[in-house]
Amino acid sequence: MRHYILLMLAMLMMLPASAQMMPSLADEPKFHDHEVKYSKKKTSFQLMTDTDAQEVKINIYDTALGGSPIRTETMIKLCKSPIINDKSLLWCAIINEDLKGKFYTFNVKQNDQWLGETPGIKALAVGVNGKRGAIIDMKQTNPKRWNKDRSPAIASKDLVIYEMHHRDYSIDPSGGFAYPGKYLALTERKGIDHLKKLGVNAVHILPSYDYASVDETRLNEPQYNWGYDPVNYWVPEGSYSTDPTNPMTRIHEFKRMVQALHKAGIKVILDVVFNHTFDIMGSNFQRTRPDYFYRKNRDGSYSNGSGCGNETASERYRMRSYIIDCCKYWVEEYHIDGFRFDLMGIHDIETMNLLRKKLPADIIIYGEGWSAGSCALPQSQLAMKANISQMPGIAAFSDEMRDGLRGPWDGDDKAAFLGGVKGNEESVKFGIAGAINHPQVDLKKVNYTDKAWANQPTQMIAYVSCHDDMCLVDRLRASVPGITQDELIRLDLLAQTAVMTSQGIPFMLSGEEMLRDKKGVHNSYNSPDSVNHLDWNNLTRYPQVMNYYRDLIAFRKAHPAFRLGDAELVRRHLEFLPTQDCVVAYRLKDHAGGDMWQDIYVVLNANRQSRTITVPDGNYTIVCRDGQFRHIGLDTFSGNTVIVPAQSALIFHN
Ligand code: CA
C-alpha cells in the first residue's frame, strides 16, 4: 500500500499544473508538508483548505508588492484528510519552470466568494511586508558553517534568561552598533560581549517572526512595535533585517544571529504568539480556511481571550498541528532552543503537552499562564498557571513572586516587599522555592494562588520585570514615595537578588543591568526609541549596577545550591529562617546539590533600616553585603546574630 501511495505521488509530481484531478489518497504526511517546494526544474505548491472550498488559484508575480500576476493557475484537488471529522482538503499545483526570485499568492473560493490573496499560512519566505510568499532556495540562506552550528548544552535549571527586543538593545547611538536595531547587532562583538560579561546564557527575543505593525517599506522613518501582531509565523520579521525587500536577507541574517549567540554559549528563545493574529478578516488563517482557526462564543461572535480581538483554537486538530509543526520548523531550520508562549493560558493543555513530546527534550518551553480575557474553552482545559502541574517540562511565569516584590499589576503606584509593605513575605518565599509545595511557605498568605502550582521548581520562571508593565526602575520610582537615587539602586539590586537566588528559572528584562528606565511609560509597545532604547552610557554612569548583576549571576552559576532542579531536593535543602516584616531569609543547607559550601544563607531586607537576624552559632564568611560581592569573602563574623543593612541582600556561608 505504501509503495502504491509513493508511486501515485511520484506520478503526480510529474504532471503539469493543469493536470486533471487526482483520486483521493490517504496521505496524512503530505498535509504537514511545506506549502512551497522549490527546485530549479519545478516549484510545487500545496494549500490545505476546508472541504467546502470550491476553487483555489495560485498567482505568480515578479514583485513583492503591486503589479499584476505574470501567471495564474487553477490548483487541483489532491486529497481529503483521512482523519475523521477533519474536513481538510489539500490542493496542489506544479509549475515546471525555475521560479526562483518570483512571488506568489493563493486565493481560495468558498461559499461562492473569493477570500482574497494570501501567501498561505506556512510561507517560508515572503516579500516586503509579508503580503506575498517568495520563492527562494532555502539552502542559499545558510551562513557559512551553519551545519556546524550547535546549541550550547545548558539544562533548564541552569538557565539565566535575558529578555530583549532587537531595537531596544542596539538602536541607540550610545551603543555604537554598526547594525542598530537589526539581527546583525547580535553578531557584533559589542552586542555579544556585553551578554557574555553579564553572564546570561539564554536570550529570549521578543516576537521576531513577520509581524504587521512596522511598515517594512518605510524603515527610514521612526517606527516601533514589540511585534505581538503576527502575520507570517514561519518567517523572520523583515524590519530587523538590513534589506526586507530581499526575501533571503532576513532569513540569512537571523541565522547568523543564532549562530553568533550559540558560538558565545548563549541559547536563543523565541517569543511565539500563536494565541491570536493581527486581525481576523485579513488574516492568512481566515483567507485560507474561514473560521476554522478561531474560537467562537455560543452566540457566534469571536471569542477574545487575547484582548486583541480574537483567539485561536489550539484544540482543533489543524491549529494544534500547526503550532507543533511551526515550532519544530524553527528548531530544525533556525536552530532555535526554546519558546516563550504569549498568553499560553489561551492554548489547551493537550496541545502544550503534545508539543513538549514532539520537541527535543532540551528545548525549553515556558509561557504566560494566563489569558487577557475569558476564553471559549473551559478553564480546566486551558494551559493556565494553575494547571502547570499537568504539563511536565513546561514552565510558567510567577506573578506571585513578581508582584510580591514590586507590587500588584493593577496599580503602578502600589508597592509590595521592595517598597517596605509588609505581608508579601510569603509570596517572595513562594518564588524563592520555585512555586512548589514547601512546608515553610504558607500558601494562605501567597498572593493570587492558594496552591503550589509547580511540580518541579524548573516549571517556574522567576522575575520581577519584563517588557510588559513598567520596568523595574520606573516601578520603584512610581511606588516608593520619596525614593532617593541611592535607594533606587539598592532596591533594584535587592530585587534581582531574589530573582537570581530563586530555585525557579531566573529571567530578567534587558537593560535592567544598565538601570534602564522607560520614562514611566507603563505599556511601551509602540513607544518611540527614546522610551524603549537602552542607554549604553548608563554602564559608565552606574557601573555598580552592572557589576552587581554580573557578580550575582556568576554567583548563581558557581553554586549548584541555587539550581537544585528537583522539588524533593529543594524541600530537603531549602530552609527558611523566621520571617520578619519585609525580611525574607533562608539557607541552603548540607552542601545542597553538591555545593562546595556547607550552608549558604541569603537574607533579603527591604526595610529602610537595618535588621538583625539570628542564625545558628558559628563562624561565617560574608560574600555579599550592601551591593557588593566578593566570592572569597568581604568579611567574617562569629556567633549567632548578624546585622543586615537596609534595603539590600546579605549572603554568607559557614
Ligand atoms: Ca513585518
Helix content: 10-25%
When the domains are counted, the total is: 3
CATH class of the largest domain: Alpha Beta
Ligands, ions, cofactors: calcium ion
- Beta-strand segment tally: 26
What is the CA-atom radius of gyration, in angstroms?
26 Å
Strand order of the largest sheet: 10-11-14-15-16-17-18-19
Please report the number of helical segments: 16
Q: Mean of the pLDDT scores? A: 95
Can you offer a commentary on this structure?
With 654 residues, this protein is an alpha/beta fold. The chain has three domains: 2-141, Sandwich (Immunoglobulin-like); 155-400 and 453-469 and 491-514 and 521-534 and 550-562, Glycosidases (TIM Barrel, Alpha-Beta Barrel), CATH 3.20.20.80; 575-653, Immunoglobulin-like, CATH 2.60.40. The chain has an eight-stranded parallel β-barrel with strand order 10-11-14-15-16-17-18-19. Strands 20, 21, 22, 23, 24, 25 and 26 form a seven-stranded antiparallel sheet that branches. A hairpin with a 2-residue loop joins strand 23 (611-625) and strand 24. Helix 7 runs parallel beside helix 8 (349-358) and helix 9 (399-406) crosses helix 10 (425-433). The radius of gyration is 26 Å and the shape is elongated. 53% of the residues are buried. Bound molecules: calcium ion. The site of calcium ion has 8 residues, from strand 12.
